[in-house]
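re: ur question from yesterday

yeah so i grabbed the chain u mentioned. its 472 aa long if i counted rite. heres the sequnce exactly as i have it in my notes:
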Amino acid sequence: MSLLDHKALYTDFYELTMAQGYFLSGRSEATASFDYFFRKNPFDGGYVIFAGLSDLLPYLENFTFNKEDIEYLDSLGFNKEFLGYLKNFQFKGEIFAPKEGEVVFPTETVVRVKGNIIETQIVETLLLNILNFESLIATKASRIRQVAGDRKFIDFGLRRSQGWGGIQASKASIVGGADATSNVYAAYEYGIEPSGTQAHSWIQSFDDELTAFRQFAEFYPDNCVLLVDTYNTLNSGVPNAIKVGKELEKKGHKLLGIRLDSGDLAYLSRKARKMLDDAGLKYVKIAASNQLDEYLIKSLIDQEAPIDLFGVGTRLVTAYDCPALDGVYKLSMINNRPKLKVSENITKVNLPGVKKVMRVYHNEGYFYGDGVMLDTEDELTKIFHPHFPEKNVDVSQFKKEEILHKVMEKGKIKADLPSPNESAQYAKQRLSQLQKEHRRFENPHIYKVGLSEKLMNTRNELLNIAKKSEVQ
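ran it thru and got these structure tokens back, copy pasting raw so excuse formatting
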């Protein structure tokens, strides 16, 4: 089964049973609004890079049930009249979202979906699957980019990714800051740069290492990176790479680099750098790979390891230390009536009504905080702490910017969909406006996300109504 041919089945079973329930109860045309948001930053970090919108919107624009889908649902016992409804189903809702690559924060509305109750409900799983995963990987990549600085950073993760998710992971890695990918399909699909060198198997397939290097250099004289740790990095690999590098010079070419894939990368890179420099090959770059992440890369840089390029695989595309972003999708309005989910845990009480998010800026151009407000409000003068209203700040004199934009109207895409490289540039620019204390890895400063007074009062009124009904 191809997902491209059966998009509407890319869902959880209960989405369909609820949709049928809405239909059979005569509520299929009730208007609804849902919010996508998350409650906690991944990796114990201070922010999230929003990604996945450019994949989600085309899916939604073509979200229909074909003949095979209907036959399958019929075999599961769904109501005939409801299946008749699904035959003509097409997503015709409205979506507001930030630009891909935007920096976003916990509790605030990240995506707003509005339409009839069936269409807004039935796309929940697809939306969560794509946005949660791509935003998670883009955020991981941005952390790696932050420590890598001007050094190149390449996604090597396809072979360790979770199935077809590797395609989205490679794309999201670029949004977060990777320079290129080893994933040829993702490079083709998204117009990003493919990159790769050689595996140990290439070298092992020859009788000796030097012959393997010479053959590779013969075929790729201007793009030759040699893997030097198959047998003995310092006694064999680097010396043989130097021989080939000098031979390339005589032919008018230059060895591009060597790659270290095992051992003490800081020690080996320093030794290899000296050997290359002593041989007059100062231009040859050193690449490193093998279970790297932002922490190991930072350690290598702190040790002044002369590494020019990092290949990051498993710990990037699997988000190794935080395997999921806890993004949720909650009903906030039905038939123009604000709704909330009540919980004993105040942090799990969602924000009611149709909302927008206003970004507030310091005079220096840095992000100061975000204010969540009802869509009907014109001005944001104060932002209140979501749970401690006595903590509030006057933002009436600050510059502000609305960060949610209409990207889909009546089921049709209304925004330009950027390439991953364009989104990466946007993410880089936006991160530069996030102060360093929010970007640090250890105990990052919590970014201000507050409520407008009107939104806060609306939520409190609904909570009081819910408490009274519990007493009755």
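noticed a couple things. The chain has a mean pLDDT of 95. also The CA atoms of residues 66 and 87 lie 7 Å apart.
anyway ttyl
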